Amino acid sequence: MRAPIGEFDNARPAPEVLDQLAAPVATAVRGWEGPVPADQLFHVDTDPEKADTAAFVEAYGQELLESSANCVVVAAKQGGVRTLAGCVVLSAARVDVNGAVRRGLGARKVSFAPHETAVGETGMEYGGITPVGLPGDWPLLVDAEVAALPWVLIGSGSRRGKLIVPGKALASLPGAEVVEGLGLRG
Prior knowledge:
This protein has 186 residues and is α+β, with helices and mostly antiparallel strands. It has a single domain, classed as YbaK/aminoacyl-tRNA synthetase-associated domain (YbaK protein, Alpha-Beta Complex). Helix content is 23%, strand content 27%. The chain has helices spanning 23-30, 53-60, 97-105, 115-122, 144-147, 167-171; strands spanning 12-13, 42-44, 69-78, 81-90, 93-95, 109-112, 140-143, 152-155, 162-165, 176-179, 183-185. Strands 6-3-4-7-10 form a 5-stranded mixed β-sheet. The protein has a 4-stranded antiparallel β-sheet with strand order 1-2-9-8. A hairpin with a 6-residue loop joins strand 8 and strand 9 (162-165). The N and C termini lie far apart (36 Å). This is YbaK/aminoacyl-tRNA synthetase-associated domain-containing protein. It holds the Pfam family tRNA_edit.
């Protein structure tokens, strides 16, 4: 099957490849209740050595940069309480941690979560972390540009493979809030 974006000939509905997804991602797909049917969440098999954005677009096409998004885990602190959250921005942007994220989470201080924390708390591989399957009690900030895209290429929970999902599906994930200006370009 051909993917809705990119030049991937190996796209398959995510419910058909649960064994290729990280456990929390497979669980989320299995229990999917979003605004689009689960069979409109596609998985494409990709080289794990090319999972990082720069290597990925070099190998699979520069045009994917404008429809690819990254999910980063941040740690927010307010009144001595630490909260972990996911932030989804276009791959061509950087997360506005000290502005939009701090305001969106109502935190005094926000920083990127350490590698070990991000991996340990999500159950996903670094470089493949995705908003699909994040812990349900986490806040999830989704940049408005990402939510508006017809199709978004995101991680699959592992470095091997990506998911292609409608932007509106990301905006409807548990704990999701669409935020204008979450991603900064330039």
